[in-house]
Amino acid sequence: MEQTEKIYDVIVIGAGPGGMTAALYASRSNLSTLLLERGIPGGEMNNTAEVENYPGFKSILGPELAERMYESTMQFGAEHVYGDVKRIVVDGDYRIIEAGKKSYKTRAVIIATGSYHRKLGVPGEEQYNGRGVSYCAVCDGAFFKGKKLAVVGGGDSAVEEGTYLTQFADVNIVHRRDELRAQKIIQDRAFKNEKVSFTWDSFVEEIKGDGQKVTGVVIKNKNTNEITEKAVDGVFIYVGILPQSDAFRDLGITDEEGWIITNEHMETAIPGIFAIGDVRQKLLRQITTAVGDGGEAGNRAFAYIEDLHDRLAAAEAAAETAD
Ligand SMILES: Cc1cc2nc3c(=O)[nH]c(=O)nc-3n(C[C@H](O)[C@H](O)[C@H](O)COP(=O)(O)OP(=O)(O)OC[C@H]3O[C@@H](n4cnc5c(N)ncnc54)[C@H](O)[C@@H]3O)c2cc1C
User: Fold this and answer.
1) Pick the catalytic residue: 84, 93, 139, 307?
2) Ligand 1: distance of its center to the CA of 165 in Å?
3) Angstrom distance (rounded) from CA 44 to CA 37
4) How far is CA 316 from CA 95, 155, 306, in A?
5) What sequence ranges are listed for the domain FAD/NAD(P)-binding (predicted)?
6) pTM of the full predicted structure?
7) 3-state secondary structure at position 61
8) What count of other Cβ atoms lies within 10 Å of the Cβ of residue 193?
9) Residue where a domain terminates, one of 237, 254, 273
């Protein structure tokens, strides 16, 4: 593995809204800052249609907000390189970040790797992924103009993205309960939309296709056990999220499900390792909360490095005196 020579003050892993904000705060504090990202900067914002709850914008497309955040983040000298981080090794006061064939040395690291969509785990889901099965309305919605879609789930993402999809298609939301979990304003919008219908108390048991693309879903009503087959051209799945934290599990900083545990200053149990945004154990996973976490972590990383410098300088002075 090739280790880069430079020693960074801070390495931020993941360039979603949390990671970008952390990099902005760190670089603006004059810390040498590296942003490592394995995809396109923006994280989940790139998969979001419209954002209506980020202050400053009445409404903005997710990818546009991502681009604007990236521009403002990079203005203070942070570096950004591609990297898929597989491991963090603690080496005294240094943290070594392993990403593919390269490793990077840093004093502090901020983990901002977000979360990913839970799968339904039913027959047909893998086979038709990308051929009618999707987890991203903004990416794939336009392929379904004039078609029929099933959206699975009852939370914010399912109902919001389901409503968004009605600009292209008729949408049936299949939910395992008899009421939605989504915020009231999102529910009201869906109930008022004539192109949204609901199948309550039901599970999708199978996604059917013709070998090439999705043709329908098999649905079971949990109260009556009745099985019905509904003809649809696509299935959008929003049934929960899981943390992107496999690379950090051996550090012992996660809970049983893999969410990273921090205090209110975004500090994990390991000094110099911070975690922010959706990957963190917390209640509200939003752009605003990721951004707030990022500001706090960037600021605390600065304080941590100041302390570290003071500690090293004091140790050096003590050693010289002893000589
Ligand atoms: C469909 C949908 C709609 C949403 N709508 C809204 C909304 O309207 N308003 C709102 O406030 N929130 C919304 N959210 C939630 C919001 O997008 C997230 O809460 C927010 O993006 C979390 O930010 P983050 O920085 O923690 O993580 P993410 O945005 O998930 O970014 C994490 C980044 O880390 C990178 N990464 C992961 N692992 C590694 C690794 N090992 N090495 C390198 N890079 C890695 C990923 O590629 C990604 O770019 C929505 C989410 C979804 C899925």
Assistant:
1) 139
2) 20
3) 13
4) 21, 56, 15
5) 8-294
6) 0.85
7) strand
8) 13
9) 237
Report helix, strand or coil for 155. coil
Average the pLDDT over 131-158 and give the result: 92
Q: Is 153 in the pocket of ligand 1 (CB under 6 A)?
A: no
Extract the tokens encoding 311.
């500690």
- Please give the tally of structural domains in the chain: 2
What distance in Å separates the CA atoms of residue 165 and residue 145, rounded to the nearest whole number?
Answer: 9
Spatial CA neighbour of 111 closest among 311, 269, 309: 269
* Nearest-atom index, ligand 1, CA of 17: 25
Give yes or no: residues 221 and 172 share one domain: yes
Percentage of the chain exceeding pLDDT 90: 85
User: In CATH, what number is assigned to the domain containing residue 196?
Assistant: 3.50.50.60
Q: Is the CB of 293 under 6 A from ligand 1?
A: no
pLDDT-based confidence at residue 23 (cuts at 50, 70, 90) = very high
| Residue at a domain's end among 219, 237, 255 | 237
* Residue whose token pair is 């600009």: 167
Determine the structural domain holding residue 168 and report its residue range: 119-237
C-alpha 12/C-alpha 168 separation (Å) is: 38
Say how far apart CA 310 and CA 323 lie, in whole Å.
20
What is the overall mean pLDDT for the chain? 95
Residue 151 three-state SS: strand
Substitution site in 34, 40, 48, 104 for ligand 1 pocket (most atoms within 8 Å of beta carbon): 48
